[in-house]
Specification:
688 residues; alpha/beta; TIM Barrel; three-stranded antiparallel sheet; 36% helix; elongated
């Protein structure tokens, strides 16, 4: 399940050169003896100073032969230690000793690991261990190592050492890391949570050395200097070092079969009206739900608030918007809507879903986001918020070019990263099918401070989450829903928030000033206090939603499907860990739309998700594909397995149609068979 180590050729070259030079008696990489009494390693030692020779040409004195430590003769890894000493990768101290049974300190172990590969400049994402190892590519299997545990003068445990080795060598995350560890090691359950990904990666790559019993890891015992050296020998791509570690000392990775189904387990799918036909007729909806039920899905999330309108008959929508419902989203026309007549899509979904034993949780997809143009903006422009308007300079003054805020990138980078919202995925599809961007940009130029360009392309406006009339409007829409329909819950997603650039409308500015002695909001929209002030008010609004839903339907769940934290907070003011702590959420479905499996698993391991899982059912949103960008079932299947291995509460797929959109060399029948295999037996959903 891991991938070929991308650093292997470079590591092979570096260690090969070191060995060749070491066996010739020259030690340009010789370091101070790895002794508990020695000061920190200060760096590489230069070759001996050259002296003048015959004809005035410089020459070098004959270097002394390598010193083999005298206390390694009875150690089980003596051959490895001898080879490392001959290569100049370890040295004896002034007494000729190496102390192989003493605990190794982080400073000495890092010095050893850094002989295996180049030491680069780590990015801002790196923790202290990753920085010390000079790792330049994220995420690593050491990403969750607690910073306070890495101290240069501190001993480390064996689990730490194996994890750090895997990180230095660039090993990939394993799909079934926990299952692999528990199946391969007798004491695998003792491996600390933060080290499990690295330990699994080392196991899979065959570099874990356990003496005298290969399957007994002793993960919490201190790593000795001799054991650290043995790990270096085993991990070396050079056979002359690797051969000194007996195969019977290397922990074997046991094959991992298909993981057992979790019981209970959420198996959901989002039903949407954008780039999708499933909601537009009762026959299409019935066919879809029958097929999902046959595949043992147990949860439906149909969109009911999208493109600025409800998809269920709402008296509030009729009064405020002039339309009771719109089913067709961005492609809506009077003719299409009229053809629906008196049809109630939501009631159909509830009846059909409940008949199959499925939970039906309507989904407010647009949240506070709104289309442009929009009837509500024409009627109530004061209900909308905006970005800050820069003070005007003198007439004819030169205009400085605008600089993108930190963290903002080009449209290409945004669209290439599947960590962003569902709507950004649609932008990618939209761009693939529309060449004329000028018409869209002309409708709503970015110069309008109330316009937000989704994916830097599609124009949106944002209802003001802090305005009492806006809050009243959304609460009344939700009241219409939960009062009139036998729903099993209610869901907001990543649009229950606000782009961090927004909040500079007159109402919000005056509200802030009233609470801050007349002081204006900070001009820097990323100011910590200003971000927290706005985020807290969105949290308070969710508290009102929760109270309303529970008053109308005590058994209904309040579900939230956000982006990962802290991205959701920093970019959209969604403080969802706080929502969980305040008891405002009954279920999380975190959107992890990742094409890189390393990043997918890394996101699942974040403390925010692990903490939420201890409090509420926490599932993972998986991107099952787009029409212009299908996702293969191997990729989807691995993500399902990774979720199960880490004991999250289940999965939900975005979106229904894409479950059947096959990439090249994969048929619809292939996808159907894989889904049948993944969900072979019916189970209740998590939290029920």
């Amino acid at each position: 399940m891991g991938h070929r180590n991308r650093f292997q050729p470079l590591v092979c070259f570096i260690v090969s050169v070191a060995l060749i030079l070491g066996y010739q008696g020259w030690h340009p990489w010789q370091v101070q003896a790895l002794s508990p009494s020695k000061p920190p390693v200060s760096g590489l030692i230069s070759p001996a100073k050259q002296l003048p020779g015959e004809n005035g040409l410089p020459t070098s004195p004959a270097p002394p032969p390598p010193v083999i430590p005298t206390d390694i003769g009875s150690h089980w890894a003596r051959d490895c230690l001898t080879a490392l000493a001959q290569a100049g990768l370890i040295t004896a101290d002034n007494q000729g000793l190496f102390y192989p049974e003493e605990p190794i300190l982080w400073r000495d172990y890092v010095a050893l690991l850094n002989r295996l590969g180049p030491v680069g400049q780590s990015g801002g994402w790196a923790n202290p261990l990753e920085k010390a190892l000079g790792i330049t590519t994220a995420p690593t299997v050491a990403a969750n190592y607690p910073s306070q545990y890495f101290q240069l003068d501190r001993p480390l445990i064996r689990a730490d050492g194996v994890m750090a080795l895997a990180a230095k060598l660039g090993f990939n995350y394993q799909i079934a890391a926990h299952t692999l560890i528990n199946a391969s090691l007798r004491d695998g359950r003792q491996v600390p949570d933060y080290a499990r990904e690295g330990v699994a990666a080392a196991l899979a790559q065959g570099v874990m050395v356990n003496y005298p019993e290969a399957t007994l890891f002793q993960p919490t015992r201190r790593l000795t200097r001799g054991e650290a050296a043995a790990l270096i020998c085993r991990a070396s791509p050079v056979a002359d070092l690797r051969r000194w570690i007996a195969p019977e000392w290397v922990a074997p990775a046991q094959p991992v079969g298909r993981l057992p189904t979790l019981n209970p387990e959420t198996r959901g799918v989002w039903l949407t009206n954008i780039d999708s036909q499933v909601l537009f007729s009762q026959q299409a909806l019935a066919t879809a739900i029958d097929q999902l039920a046959a595949l043992n899905f147990n949860t439906l999330y149909p969109t009911v608030w999208n493109w600025g309108y409800t998809l269920y008959p709402s008296r509030t929508a009729q009064r405020v918007l002039g339309d009771s419902q719109h089913l067709y989203g961005e492609i809506s026309t009077p003719q299409l809507e009229a053809a629906q007549a008196e049809r109630d899509m939501l009631q159909e979904a509830i009846d059909l879903g409940h008949a199959q034993g499925m939970a039906v949780i309507p989904w407010f997809e647009f949240g506070f986001m709104a289309p442009e143009p929009y009837e509500l903006y024409r009627r109530h422009p004061d209900w909308f918020t905006q970005k800050r308007v820069e003070p005007q300079g003198p007439a004819n003054a030169p205009v400085a070019p605008k600089q993108a805020p930190a963290g903002k990138g080009s449209v290409d980078r945004l669209l290439a990263d599947r960590s962003f919202s569902r709507e950004k995925q649609r932008v990618k599809h939209w761009l693939a099918q529309n060449d004329d961007l000028g018409e869209v940009l002309e409708i709503a130029p970015a110069a309008d401070p109330g316009i937000w360009l989704e994916g830097d392309v599609l124009p949106r406006r944002w209802l003001n989450p802090f305005h009492p009339q806006v809050q009243k409007f959304l609460l009344e829409l939700i009241n219409d829903l939960v009062s009139n329909y036998e729903v099993d819950g209610f869901q907001f997603d990543d649009h229950l928030g606000l782009p961090v650039e927004f909040g500079y409308d007159p109402y919000t500015i005056n509200l802030y000033k009233a609470e801050h002695n007349g002081q204006e909001p900070p001009a820097n929209y990323l100011d910590d206090g200003w971000v927290a002030w706005r985020a807290n008010r969105i949290s308070d609004f969710l508290a009102e939603v929760y109270k309303l839903v529970k008053a109308r339907r005590p058994q209904a769940i309040v579900s939230i499907s956000p982006n990962p934290y802290p991205f959701a907070y920093v970019n959209y003011l969604q403080d969802w860990p706080n929502w969980v702590n305040r008891g405002l959420v009954d279920e999380l479905v975190v959107q992890l739309y990742r094409s890189d499996q390393n990043r997918f698993i890394w996101e699942m391991n974040k403390p925010s998700i692990r903490q939420a899982l201890r409090q509420v059912p926490t599932s993972v949103g998986i991107l099952s594909g787009l029409r212009a960008d299908p996702v293969g079932m191997d990729h989807i299947g691995d993500q399902i397995e990774a979720v199960r291995d880490r004991k999250l509460s289940g999965v939900s797929f975005f979106f229904y149609e894409s479950l059947w959109i096959s990439p090249a060399r994969e048929s619809r029948e292939d996808r159907l068979a894989r889904l049948q295999q993944a969900f072979a037996t019916p189970v209740p959903r998590s939290g029920v």
